[in-house]
Amino acid sequence: MAGRKPEKPLSKSENTRNALLEAALRVLSEKGLAGTRVSMIVKESGYSQGTFYVYFENKEAILYEIVSPVLDKLYEVAMGFWEKGELYESVRHAIRSYLVVYSENADVMRILVEGAASKDKALERLYMDTRRRFQQRIHRYLTAASKNGQTEDIDLEVAAFALGSMVDSFAYWFYVMQPKHKRSMDIDQVSTTLTDLWCNSVYKREALRDG
Amino acid sequence: MAGRKPEKPLSKSENTRNALLEAALRVLSEKGLAGTRVSMIVKESGYSQGTFYVYFENKEAILYEIVSPVLDKLYEVAMGFWEKGELYESVRHAIRSYLVVYSENADVMRILVEGAASKDKALERLYMDTRRRFQQRIHRYLTAASKNGQTEDIDLEVAAFALGSMVDSFAYWFYVMQPKHKRSMDIDQVSTTLTDLWCNSVYKREALRDG
Amino acid sequence: MAGRKPEKPLSKSENTRNALLEAALRVLSEKGLAGTRVSMIVKESGYSQGTFYVYFENKEAILYEIVSPVLDKLYEVAMGFWEKGELYESVRHAIRSYLVVYSENADVMRILVEGAASKDKALERLYMDTRRRFQQRIHRYLTAASKNGQTEDIDLEVAAFALGSMVDSFAYWFYVMQPKHKRSMDIDQVSTTLTDLWCNSVYKREALRDG
Amino acid sequence: MAGRKPEKPLSKSENTRNALLEAALRVLSEKGLAGTRVSMIVKESGYSQGTFYVYFENKEAILYEIVSPVLDKLYEVAMGFWEKGELYESVRHAIRSYLVVYSENADVMRILVEGAASKDKALERLYMDTRRRFQQRIHRYLTAASKNGQTEDIDLEVAAFALGSMVDSFAYWFYVMQPKHKRSMDIDQVSTTLTDLWCNSVYKREALRDG
DNA sequence: CATGAATGAGATTTCATTCAT
DNA sequence: AATGAATGAAATCTCATTCAT
Predict the structure, then answer these.
(1) Residue C50, CA: closest nucleotide via C1'?
(2) pLDDT confidence of residue A2
């Protein structure tokens, strides 16, 4: 009774749709955006070429549907807890959650980066919007702290973006570019260091001590 | 007597080669990697289709030649001054130089990001290698400071990468994704904030005060 | 009850495939291997350029499919009767059959010769293998006769190859190189002479008289 | 003084021409006719692309110049001795000489076969003409023998072509198709067998015994 | 719903040949 | 005599998309 939706059985058409989405993700993960062909997706899905166009208008459409929910999840999970708890802990929680979701969707994030850089309008916008949402949220939070005299005297708008960038870019390097077997550091260790950097950089030492 | 080499006139073939490289950069900047066709490059250059293949084996070859020197320049310029001066100033100089070169080559950096994300082996490696070079250099620098008791007690390896990422990712957002007319902040202002964040995050407050 | 399979109607795709094969043969016959373009084949077939690549990986693939069955037929027809009948007659039957099938497939044989000479690995091997199969079969046959003391005292291995070559090369000249209107001799006449040469060259005169 | 031409030193232009011819032969031997590019020839020769067209009108021209003299030599050497000596010996001498020259020019012969089969007009004609010259010569010789009652009662025109074909085709297989290391038989052995076949096939046994 | 055959525009690449120097 | 830069027509192959069944 824990808020779980009762599992409605999926209709035949929903099944096919999902199968195509999953197949697309698998192919995109392996081949990258530029290397993915519709023919690969349908082959992977087991359905036929024509079926693809029953469910998606074109190649870009399926892309958007794959990337979009991951970004929403990322935002929701990382920003949900924020503001409720104590200073250091709420930062740490946000960072750690971000890394967890990122690691689970590293392939999608790679695709997003590729697409946004390639001037694909839809993905470029998705990417920008998400980063701005993060920035604004962080900025709002820092401003609040600054009103309590807890922050150092720096440009909080730039800081908000820079710190968000730091975590995001670290995640990209750590989970996307780095081959799995080379990751010597574990997520808790990393989260702690990132949180230390974040907090040291903007908060006064006293503010941290007091929480 | 200023040490400048007397400018040897370029041979005909060197001229053509350069013209193609420049045309390629223009097209890549406008269309992105995935959107660039050899036909566009030759049209832009004024040469014929066949001429392209006299000078470059294929599309990837010209790509590498465009991206590679920019990365070298970026490293050289940003890391050159490092270690010589006073703590805060040397960080600031590095960051500012990085941003300057980045802004002058924003288009190329976008291409690099797209290419590395797209699993193009050559560019992926170029990207990784460069980031690692930066990380190692920063790490070495932080370690030196830590031996003088100047750093906070954090994981310097992660810090090195995270701080490098912060600057790089900020630059990407600021110069690549952001349309020019929306950039309200100027480079000095931004450099200062980034330097503040950087220094606050790793160095002890005393160390900063003393230089 | 005549053992004929009821003719299953060919599927759409089988039809297209066959149409391409037939068109390819026509073009290859007229233009030769080096002079044949995929564009010519599809034009001749009435299908579009893209359709070709739905059915065949590339030019070489369709080539192999055209040549290979002809060689099998040639071997089967020429060697099928062999050994059953009387000496002279079985040789004559084999030679005549060879010439008949050769004349019906002269164009294909020309292509095979061109392809094998051009160092196309697949065709070179096909050519070699077929010639060796013939040689071995003839050699076996001559050896059997030699055990009955019916052959002259010569190197039967060389003889086997040389006699096979004689018939094959004659057929090539007669049906491939010679323009049709210049062929004054008819197939029976020619078969008889070739059989005479063959038999005289290896068999003892007595053996021939006795059969 | 044995008829050797006094070696006039070659002019510069003759040198270049020869260098190109030799380079062309090397490339053609390795790559086959269809696989040879003008660019390969000039690279092999060390001269430049433009130089090729100073000496040869086009690609076909150099081809003809390479093949033509070999055919002349083949005819001259094989047919020169003919008719002078005793029956068996003159046949054997002709066959052996043919094989010797063939083996020395196997690469060229392969090119000729490829070119003739490919419907290259010039080479097709060269090939046909040469084979006809051989046939006519052999035919004339057989007819002479037949007037002395030395031949079996068979169609001498067909025989002439068939026997010529036999030797030629054997040589092709032996020196062109067969990789060198697989040739177990030596030229004397082979010549003898071919001569035996030839003589047995057309001459009366008595004629052979008497010479 | 699903199919799979067919398409054709367009991308990459090749290469014999020309020509000004 | 020799060069080598430039060409451009043409060949191969790709692939997102359509559509009749």
Answers:
(1) E7
(2) 46
